[in-house]
Amino acid sequence: MEIEKIIAVGVADAVKALYGADVQPDTVQADRTKKEFEGHLTVVVFPYLKASHKKPEDTAAEIGAWLVENLDAVEKFNAVKGFLNLSIAPAFWLRRLHDIAADPDFGITAPTPDSQLVMVEYSSPNTNKPLHLGHVRNNLLGYSLSRILEANGYRVVKTNIVNDRGIHICKSMLAWLKWGNGITPEKAGKKGDHLIGDFYVEFDRHYKAELKELQAKGMTEEEAEAASTLMQEAREMLRRWEAGDEKVRLLWKMMNEWVYAGFDETYRRMGVSFDKIYYESDTYLEGKDLVLGGLEKGIMYRKDDGSVWADLTSDGLDHKLLLRKDGTSVYMTQDIGTAKLRYQDYPIDKMVYVVGNEQNYHFQVLALLLDKLGFKWGKDLTHFSYGMVELPEGKMKSREGTVVDADDLMDSMIADARDTSSERFADMPADEADEIARIVGMGALKYFLLKVDPKKNMLFNPKESIDFNGNTGPFLQYTYARIRSICRKAVDELAACSYAQAVPNEKEQALIQKIADFPETIAAAGRTYSPALIAKYCYELAKEYNQFYHDYQILREEDAPTRCLRLNLSAVTARTLRQGVALLGIEMPERM
Predict the structure, then answer these.
(1) What proportions of the chain, in percent to the nearest 5, are helix, strand and coil?
(2) Whole-angstrom distance, CA of residue 140 vs CA of residue 449
(3) Model-level pTM?
(4) 116-153, pLDDT tens digit by residue?
(5) Domains (ranges, CATH) in the chain?
(6) DSSP letters of 94-124?
(7) What angle is formed at CA 33 by the lines to CA 29 and CA 39, rounded to 5 degrees?
(8) Any residues with CB less than 8 A from the CB of 244 and at least 6 apart, and which?
(9) Across the strands, what pairs with 308?
(10) What is the distance between the alpha carbons of residues 511 and 519, in angstroms, rounded to a whole number?
(11) pLDDT tens per residue, range 180-219
């Protein structure tokens, strides 16, 4: 049993025995003792003063004395006002380490066929451009959240909705027709998503030039936008696509296939995957039918221009467009259709959308609309809202070509890892050095993006992320590699030695206590949807181990039980670090 639960039950028994009052163990507050005080756990005794009719210090002292007398796990205590600091017996920590070491999946709750099914949607790219830095944070958050939920015992379906239709897609298609000269990814020597992204930027360049020319003739900006022949052609292409025009559809299919091939390569390198991919081109008609059905039932209304809207003013929101006047769909329509298909495909208990916080309003509306359309799960959807990744130069703009491309970013991180670690790689075969550089570079990128509270905006700083000494992925990886090196040197001893007679010192006890916190950390990360809690835990565990490693001999320790204890403690620390960062999608190198 976890020490916190043992103490909670003990305090409840103590209050009953000493003061005759009933206390529920789950109401007992037992937290880590602050570093400036002696002890492992601190119990707040203020809630029991009414029962004791004594001063806080006296109440704490009486409860502490009772625990020492009646619980083998409690060795001693000290009372500071209303705070009871408890020191846990070394023998308890020894048994705790033994139990943890014996459980290869310590902290991980495996799903069962009866576990609740959670669907997590992330990525959601557009097929008019390659993935960029913002997509990287989205993918890493979604994938990590999926791993964390699985570790909490949920069955998880990882999904992606590809936005493969719409005006933005038609812009790239039109630009390719006008200025592409039949270029293909093979001819250009480019990934398909990059090639199509170039034409999206090209459309914007010509569009801005056209607007400038029209405004020079005396038009206002709004008038110029309305008169733009380029934009009119793009809208006409969208109408032809929705009407099933064969030529437009063939072009669309060809260019999208180029993009999908590029996406697949980027996802593979990023280390993320999906169990099911939905496409807007398959789902928007479902949504359109639902909206028209809602119109017949009076849930939606049609304006004089033919557009269809939902009136959400009674819910504290405003009017929401669902179908344009020309009958074409908007994102909301697609999401309604996709939601319906997903719940047809899977018996989902919970739906989680990993989408940036600029879409908070969108998901408020989606939940309301699904509920109004009769889907009981509508109001239960979860929008995992996260902050944006910003650059020192400001916000990124895809249409202007000012984004940080995901592929270029990964290349850069791996190259930086290779340069930073050139001395470490000097004696390695080239292929091994390349693989470790990949692991370290990608680990640096993932950890940097995931260690920040997902709700917060963040400033991306690749140079800071590659530091081997700070709160970084490489620091965790180096700590792991160091421990694995120790374990390899003592592999035979580890398999046969005993530490039953060892007496763990304060540092060793603190390290065991930190490892024992792993299950609750995973549970908290699952409850709050926060990979950052896992990152923080792994960093603190690595720091705790490095302090221990600095202060005490391991392989050179002469006392056999103590050496065995430290070897096993090292092995369990390494295992916990590896399992922890795996929840972030980070790999660990066996040596560095």
Answers:
(1) 60, 10, 30
(2) 8
(3) 0.92
(4) 999 999 999 999 999 999 999 999 999 999 999 999 99
(5) 3-88 (3.30.1360.70), 122-281+346-400 (3.40.50.620), 406-582 (1.10.730.10)
(6) HHHHHHHHH-TTTT-B---TTSPEEEEE---
(7) 115
(8) none
(9) 302, 323
(10) 15
(11) 999 999 999 999 999 999 999 999 999 999 999 999 999 9
